[in-house]
Design goal:
The chain is mostly helical and about 120 residues long. It is built from seven helices and two strands. Helix 2 runs antiparallel to helix 3 and helix 3 runs antiparallel to helix 4.
């Protein structure tokens, strides 16, 4: 029997329902496949299972709450919901103001102040 990545993630998820790793990985797969609503669903489930301040590792990828939120924000951007993406960016700024994707999600927030 050949094991695929999806098969491994599904089995991991079934055995670890209360942990965020499986949902995060499923979100990553959906995001790469440009299934942004599905990715958003999985990233939200991952967020619900994360302990703030804790870092997780799944298949060599490290992530925490700010990373999961950033992925949600990217989904909202791809779905052309820039206001919601900006709200997510504001949440990330409170947790990790130096996060690599925070600035991209907040893009345009301060433009009105300079005009």
């Amino acid at each position: 029997m050949q094991f695929t990545f999806n098969y491994c993630v599904s089995n991991y998820q079934e055995m670890n329902e209360d942990k965020p790793e499986g949902n995060f990985l499923r979100g990553e797969i959906a995001f790469v496949g440009e299934a942004y609503p599905k990715a958003l669903e999985y990233y939200r489930k991952a967020e619900d299972r994360i302990i703030p301040g804790r870092l997780y590792i799944a298949y060599g990828e490290g992530f925490g709450l700010a990373d999961v939120l950033a992925k949600q924000g990217l989904c909202y951007q791809r779905l052309e919901n820039v206001d919601r993406a900006r709200e997510i960016g504001q949440r990330i700024r409170k947790i990790d103001p130096d996060h690599a994707l925070c600035k991209a999600l907040l893009e345009g927030e301060d433009k009105g102040a300079d005009d």
